[in-house]
Structure formats: structure tokens, C-alpha cells
């Protein structure tokens, strides 16, 4: 044990803390930990500047726990974090490091869950309070003396707290704390606003700066694809087929896009969920936990919702939408390559965003390699590889369990073993296409145009839309049917199967009542029985696919 923690043992931290650190498996302190721990341990104020993923939490949590007096049952340390997720993450880390310190309790204070239990935990003597500024101020309004015993304050991700508009709240909190406390400030950047806070509220702070920018990204292999905006969904689906990921986080710009994309992925059989600021707190925590333990593999998130998220399983970050600035990019891709593991970051670039790509390359000091959209052959290879990987561990002993059943089945059905195996493969792959023709056909409605000619496409997309809309459909209608239009098409990720399912389900129709379905790029047509059409349209008024309304209406062909 002691040998493993020799790096940490040099700090003279409380033995119980060292034992807990050893149990986490950390071998050596990170650069920010090596420099900050000795300063914070002795009660000095400090400004720490380091990128995400450098181990800042332990850099302040270990020395602060060392200073805590477990016998005194009152708040002694206050950690402020910008979001609920980060507050929870920091609180969990404190609990981990304090596991062998009996009597030390930690409370997380954040919005979106009842105030009563949080206030009670503070009054009951939690020594460590981890809070978001907004909710903490709410508590202070009820009990302005609540923080008078705090003698260590940490501002974690201070730049982010200011970006989120917590400046006024911070001032209220500073006033509620004893003036002779220790103050430690961590921030990835040090803009003027942060320096001003430091000047006013820190006493003689020591500066620690870790240059990790390039380090942060060297552990991450970065690549980009030039795509047309309309093609993003299909590109995402193709990439997911060929990328060998464990857990993956996707970034989009809007809350709606998180929902839409997550539901498309779910409909394709991925274990995916959305993460955005509108989703209830408890649900967000469930999503993160599920991603950690493998119940989910993909999270589609907005920047704010995913800040600081630390899930070691994440091997891939897929930037579906370009971030607003290079810093967000560095933060986003920092969700992978955690703790020295290698990660992969993919970026979809639409033609007019090429300049941003150059800025990103300049800021990260690294070239982002261009990759091509996987072709059907690559997708076929990936599917076969996946199938091989899932079957190969089974062949050794499945025969003893299923061999005689197989004999019975082939005899009963009167087919060859090869025919039987093929049928079983169809089940095993959920009917997924496993030959080139079928894959090409499957991809056709989603990728009707050549993505790599995206510049030209973007300019001509208006024309394409119009010609789609005006195209005639000389296909004869089934008897007693009329053609109806749905405002969603391939670009919304619609596939005929989903559409059929939604209409059958909400319209309570028999399977054969629905005629031909045609999925176009930005709308779809479906043949429905003329008899009872009005009632059917009413029933389907609120039906949604991928979060979007069908807007089903009768289609006039003239
Ligand atoms: P930051 O706050 O700088 O973004 P975190 O404190 O969240 O970084 O740490 C990032 C990851 O690195 C976490 O998974 C954490 O458990 C891990 N970690 C921290 N310190 C060490 C260490 N000394 N050795 C190995 N892993 C560490
Ligand atoms: Mg952090």
C-alpha cells in the first residue's frame, strides 16, 4: 500500500486520507496536485489555473480534508461549483477520499431538489458543503449565519461560474463567510473578471499554473469530416457503425437536438439518452449513472449539461455541431482521454465552419486529421466484425446446450443446418443487412447525395427542396386510399418502420389498412384509407416521431 502511494505519502497527509487515496488506485499525484496540495494544506490562499481533466478535485479535496476537524460538527469547508452535476461529482469525490475518516460528512447543495433535507444536513453538522451558488444563496436568505463556521472556501471552475451569471451570488456568499478564512480559486482561464475577484477576496494568493493544453489533447486522437448540414444524422449513424467505442458522448447545440438525436439513436437500437438543462435533475443523475455502469452507451448533450462530466468509460466524443469557441471544444473533448487513457474526438464540419476548424487547430496546437465518411464496405466489415466478436466466445460451449435442440429443429422444420443457421443469424442481427447491396439500399434514403461535394450542395439546397416538393408521384393509389403527407422525412431520421409503427399504434389501424409509404428527403407520403380519414387525422394530431410532430394532412397532387 505505502509503496503504491509513495507519491502521495510525501505530502504528510493524514494516514486515513492516504489510505483512501490508495484504495482509489491513484499512483502518482498529477502536476496540479503536486503543486497545490502543500500550499492548501498549510492554509494559504491560492489561485490554480489548469485545464479540465488535470485532477483539480483531489488537488483541493485532499488538503482540505486534512484540515477538517471531525469532532466539530459544523460546516468547515465550502466548495462552490457552477452546476449541479459538478457539485455532485465533487461531493462524491470528497466522500471517497473521506471514506476512512469517521465522523466526516459531506452535503451537496443544489437546485432542483428540496431545500429542507439540505438545510438539515448543514445544521446536523456536515463539515464539507459542496454547493452551487444560486441554491446556497437561497439557504442564506433563510439562515444568514449558516456559513459562519466555514474556514476554507474553494471556487471550482470559477470562470464557468461567472459565465453562468453567478457574480452577484458569489458576492453574497463572500459576505456570509468569516473574513479570515482560506480561499482557493480554480479556473481554466483567468479573465479580468476573475483577477478582480481574486484581488478583492483572496489574501496574498500563491499562483499555480499548469500548462496542460497540449497534454490534454495529445491523449486524444482528433479527426473531422466535412459534411453537409442535412446529412448529419446519417453521418452520425454511419460513424457509430464503424467506430469502436465503449461509451460515447455527442454534442449538439440545442436542447431539442439532444432529444431528437437521442430518440433516433434509440430507434436504431442504441442505448442512448439526451442530457440537457431542461431535463429534471433526478433524471440527469440517472442518465450519468447509467452511462457509468453501461446501461447507456451514448449520451447526446448540450455543452452546459455535460460540463465537467467525468465518466472514465467514455472513449469517444462526437461533435455533431461545432462548438461556439475553441475553449468549449477543448472542454468537450476533455470528456474522453480521462486520467491518461487514450480517447478519440470526431468533429462534423459544414463548409462554412472550416475557419473555426483552423482556429481550433491553432488553439490546441494540433492538426485535426480529415477522415472520409465510411462507405458501405466499411460498414459491412464493421457489422461482420461485431457479429464475429459476439459469436466467437459462444461457439466453444453453446453446442452442448443447444446441439440436440438444433437437430430436432432442423428435423421438424425439415431444413438444412445452413438454412437454420441463416435464420438464427437473422434473429441475432435483428434483421440487419449483412451484404453490400442491402447496406447500400438501406443507406440510400438517408444519403441521397454525395456528401463530399457538400460546398456545392449547401448552395443548391433550396433548389433541391423545391424540386422534392414539386416532384410528381405517378404511383397508382391502392383502392379506397388517399395519399397523405407527413412533415418529416429522411433528414429527420424517419424510417418507414417507425412511421408505420406510429400510425398503426396511435391510429389503432389494422396492418393492412396502410398502403405504400414513401420517405423523401424532407417529407414523407403514406397511403391511408379514405373512409374515416378525418377521424384518423384527429387521432394522429399529436403523434410524434423523434420528438417532432407528424403534421399529417391529405396530400393534394395538383
Ligand atoms: P478536473 O477537475 O481537473 O477536470 P478531476 O478532478 O475531475 O479533473 O479528475 C479527472 C479524473 O482523473 C478523475 O476521474 C479522477 O478520478 C482522476 N484522477 C485524479 N487524480 C488522479 C491521480 N493522481 N491519478 C490517477 N487518476 C486521477
Ligand atoms: Mg473539476
Automatic annotation (TrEMBL):
Keywords: ATP-binding, Helicase, Hydrolase, Nucleotide-binding
Keyword hit for Nucleus: no
Domain of life: Bacteria
Enzyme class name: hydrolase
Keyword ATP-binding: yes
Residues in Helicase C-terminal domain copies: 219-379
EC number: 3.6.4.13
PROSITE patterns cross-referenced by the UniProt entry: DEAD_ATP_HELICASE, HELICASE_ATP_BIND_1, HELICASE_CTER, Q_MOTIF
Matches recorded under Pfam families: DbpA, DEAD, Helicase_C
Annotated InterPro entries: DbpA/CsdA_RNA-bd_dom, DEAD/DEAH_box_helicase_dom, DEAD/DEAH_RhlB, DEAD_box_RNA_helicases, Helicase_ATP-bd, Helicase_C-like, Nucleotide-bd_a/b_plait_sf, P-loop_NTPase
Residue intervals of the Helicase ATP-binding domain: 37-208
Short motif (Q motif): ranges: 6-34
GO terms of molecular function: hydrolase activity; RNA helicase activity
Residue ranges constituting the DEAD-box RNA helicase Q domain according to the UniProt record: 6-34
Family the entry assigns: Belongs to the DEAD box helicase family.
Identification of the protein by name: RNA helicase
Taxonomic placement: Bacteria, Pseudomonadati, Pseudomonadota, Gammaproteobacteria, Pseudomonadales
Amino acid at each position: 500500500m505505502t509503496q503504491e502511494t509513495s507519491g502521495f505519502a510525501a505530502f504528510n497527509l493524514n494516514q486515513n486520507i492516504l489510505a483512501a487515496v490508495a484504495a482509489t488506485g491513484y499512483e502518482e499525484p498529477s502536476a496540479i496536485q503536486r503543486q497545490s496540495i502543500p500550499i492548501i494544506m498549510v492554509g494559504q490562499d491560492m489561485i490554480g489555473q489548469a485545464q479540465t481533466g488535470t485532477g483539480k478535485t483531489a488537488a483541493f479535496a485532499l488538503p482540505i480534508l486534512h484540515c477538517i476537524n471531525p469532532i466539530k460538527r459544523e460546516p468547515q469547508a465550502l466548495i462552490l461549483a457552477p452546476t449541479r452535476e459538478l457539485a455532485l461529482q465533487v461531493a462524491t469525490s470528497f466522500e471517497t477520499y473521506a471514506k476512512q475518516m469517521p465522523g466526516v460528512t459531506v452535503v451537496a447543495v443544489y437546485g432542483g431538489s428540496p431545500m429542507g433535507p439540505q438545510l438539515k444536513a448543514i445544521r446536523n453538522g456536515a463539515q464539507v458543503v459542496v454547493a452551487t451558488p444560486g441554491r446556497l444563496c437561497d439557504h442564506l436568505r433563510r439562515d444568514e449565519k449558516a456559513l459562519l463556521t466555514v474556514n476554507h472556501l474553494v471556487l471550482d471552475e470559477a470562470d464557468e461560474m461567472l459565465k453562468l451569471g453567478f457574480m452577484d451570488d458569489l458576492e453574497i456568499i463572500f459576505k456570509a463567510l468569516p473574513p479570515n478564512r482560506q480561499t482557493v480559486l480554480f479556473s481554466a482561464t483567468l479573465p479580468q473578471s476573475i483577477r478582480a475577484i481574486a484581488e478583492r477576496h483572496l489574501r496574498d494568493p500563491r499562483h499555480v499554473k499548469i500548462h496542460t493544453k497540449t497534454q490534454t489533447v495529445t491523449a486524444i486522437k482528433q479527426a473531422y469530416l466535412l459534411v453537409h448540414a442535412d446529412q448529419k444524422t446519417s453521418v452520425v449513424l454511419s460513424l457509430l457503425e464503424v467506430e469502436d467505442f465503449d461509451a460515447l458522448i455527442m454534442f449538439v447545440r440545442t436542447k431539442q437536438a439532444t432529444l431528437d438525436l437521442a430518440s433516433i439513436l434509440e430507434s436504431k437500437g442504441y442505448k442512448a439518452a439526451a442530457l440537457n438543462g431542461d431535463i429534471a435533475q433526478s433524471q440527469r443523475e440517472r442518465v450519468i449513472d447509467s452511462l457509468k455502469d453501461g446501461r447507456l452507451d451514448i449520451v447526446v448533450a448540450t455543452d452546459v449539461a455535460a460540463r465537467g462530466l467525468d465518466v472514465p468509460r467514455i472513449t469517444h466524443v462526437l461533435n455533431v455541431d461545432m462548438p461556439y469557441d475553441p475553449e468549449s471544444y477543448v472542454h468537450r473533448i476533455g470528456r474522453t482521454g480521462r486520467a491518461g487513457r487514450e480517447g478519440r474526438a470526431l468533429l462534423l464540419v459544414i463548409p462554412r465552419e472550416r475557419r473555426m476548424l483552423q482556429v481550433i487547430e491553432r488553439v490546441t496546437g494540433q492538426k485535426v486529421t480529415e477522415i472520409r465518411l465510411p462507405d458501405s464496405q466499411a460498414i459491412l466489415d464493421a457489422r461482420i466484425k461485431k457479429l464475429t466478436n459476439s459469436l466467437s466466445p459462444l461457439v466453444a460451449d453453446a453446442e452442448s446446450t443447444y446441439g440436440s435442440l438444433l437437430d430436432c429443429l432442423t428435423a421438424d422444420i425439415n431444413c438444412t443446418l445452413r438454412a437454420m443457421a441463416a435464420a438464427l443469424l437473422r434473429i441475432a442481427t435483428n434483421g440487419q443487412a449483412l451484404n453490400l447491396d442491402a447496406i447500400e439500399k438501406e443507406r440510400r434514403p438517408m444519403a441521397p447525395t454525395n456528401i463530399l461535394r457538400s460546398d456545392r450542395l449547401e448552395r443548391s439546397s433550396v433548389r433541391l427542396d423545391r424540386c422534392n416538393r414539386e416532384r410528381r408521384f405517378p404511383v397508382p393509389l391502392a383502392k379506397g386510399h388517399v395519399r397523405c403527407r407527413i412533415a418529416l422525412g429522411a433528414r429527420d431520421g424517419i424510417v418507414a418502420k417507425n412511421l408505420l409503427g406510429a400510425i398503426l399504434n396511435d391510429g389503432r389501424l389494422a396492418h393492412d389498412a396502410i398502403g405504400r409509404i414513401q420517405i423523401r428527403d424532407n417529407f414523407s407520403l403514406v397511403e391511408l384509407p379514405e373512409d374515416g380519414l378525418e377521424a384518423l387525422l384527429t387521432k394522429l394530431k399529436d403523434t410524434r416521431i423523434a420528438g417532432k410532430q407528424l403534421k399529417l394532412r391529405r396530400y393534394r397532387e395538383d
